[in-house]
Amino acid sequence: MKHDDGISNTSGNRPFEDVLDVNLQRRKVLAGGLAGAAMGFFASPALAGMKGWGKDDDAARGHGRGRPRSRLLGFAPVPVAEGNGPWPSISADYDYQVLIPWGEPLEPGGPAYQWPPSAADQARQIGIGHDGMWFFPMDDKACRDDDDRAHWGRHAGRWQGGENRHGMLAINHEFGTNAHVLGKAMPDNLDDVRTSQHAHGMSVVEIKKVGRSWRQVESANARRIHANTPVAFSGPVAGHALLATPNGNIPLGTLNNCANGHTPWGTYLTCEENFNGYFGASGAWSATEAQKRYGFSANGFDYGWHLFDRRFDLSDEDYRNEENRFGWVVEVDPFDATQTPVKRTALGRFKHEGVAITEGRGKRVVAYMGDDERFDYIYKFVSDDNWKKMRRAGKSPLDHGKLYAAKFNDDGTGQWLELSIDNPALAARFADQAEVLTYARMAADVLGATPMDRPEWTTVAPNGDVYCTLTNNSKRTVADAANPMAPNPDGHIIRWHDTDQHVGTTFTWDIFLIAKDTHGTEDSFASPDGLWADPDGRLFIQTDGGQKDGLNNQMLVADTKTGEIRRLFTGVSGDEITGITVTPDRRTLFINMQHPGEGDPTVANFPAELDGVTVPRDCTIVITRKDGGIIGS
């Protein structure tokens, strides 16, 4: 992803490194299971009692001699020595296929790829910056509205059964630099801006396995949703003055679509992350407190949209509040191309990396979310009632509920702080609940949420444990011999277990993995990002950032019961490995290769053959075991 290199949080809330430093002095980092039980709180039964490890306890960690043998990881790992260069590497037990690269027609017969694309063609082609995605089997379309047949797997976090060879793939297109998309540093006119805008957003395509290969097929529901697609708002902020502009222009678009989620009723959730980078100021402009907190600046990320499209010009008073229309979770129906994408405002406005949905006590929908910026927060949303009951009453479970921010305590416990206007501290600062949600970061500042090291993907394991990647934070300043994570250029993965089946307001937590501890081993990785917990206890980890030991970005699989890690796939020079979804039988895995070579053809040309000239293209990678087995086994 294109990371916002700034820091917007100046709240002074206690940094997570302070909490972690005290916490690690009190207890060992665990290979499996939460340590909160030792403090009077209880971890998940499946993990309770697992042996922790210390600095020299490599056997328990799964590194070095004496590592425990994993029953879950049976594949041959990609050796460190093979995980670099301009071409991917994959486990000897697996095969891969390239699917839907940037610029491919949305449907067979559409405009063919050529570089650079025109604005009109790009609107009908696969976008750039492949990121989060989800596979929706075709038979979900028939059963998803029947609550008794939907078979939502609360523990598996996926649809049960269904087609394994035919479905709709909903996929995010996070970003593409001007150099990559346009072949120049800045746009020269509005048409250039439209090309860039149409490369963003997301795609919905129909795919089918024919023989041993997957391919796109013609579909009435294939569509592009980009920065100029009409959208709707729902929930507490819908219709509020904060979403209205003096110009009166209708809401359009979604952009910087990073990670994702999916609902038990069969819809896709795409998450808007670094939306601030597309705005700039062509004239005199002074940032408001809220704009500063969300990282807006006069030049943004140098896309230059504001120079030709007034919507993105912060100095154009006629479009005041346009920026408040971005930074939300957007719901999309993959089986209905006529549906207007809906921004669900009850989930709050911040730099959403993704949203992990699970079913909590009373069949309430629970959503875990990270705000991907240095020193920002982790959030949770809980619907007001049973999601099936709410839908039967004509209510979206994502429109009615409570939003919380996490506070991590020294002793391995934590609290979920409700972002509610009923709290006197928030009532003194904000006018109403709509303002609290629009400026969720500022509300979390007031309540004292814990600043984290770039919270990214979240995932919920079958036993109820929740994992979150904290990619890195090179701006951390507190360091000592006992705390190897200050500064934290390599990141870590945190884990917690909520009380009351996800709907409570307390939790226990520990650190699952510290990336730095893997360096110099065959498990080496840094900057964890993409994340998915499968039903058997595997944790799939994808990376985005400077890998150590000569590696490219990669995807690894961890056994959460033993701590063992194996490398399944490595990308090409300059790319990011991101996005993850599977067919219901888990025998086909889809991941994404984002910005291979950083778009520079002298670095990489993938998926084309090496020639030093061809512009590389973001693409989806289809992975299968050669023996047809379960992915990760």
Automatic annotation (TrEMBL):
Alphabetized PROSITE patterns for the sequence: TAT (PS51318)
Alphabetized Gene3D superfamilies for the sequence: TolB, C-terminal domain
Cited SUPFAM superfamilies: Calcium-dependent phosphotriesterase
UniProt cross-references to InterPro entries, sorted A to Z: 6-blade_b-propeller_TolB-like, PhoX, TAT_signal
Residue intervals passing through the bilayer: none
Protein name listed in UniProt: PhoX family phosphatase
Taxon lineage: Bacteria, Pseudomonadati, Pseudomonadota, Betaproteobacteria, Rhodocyclales
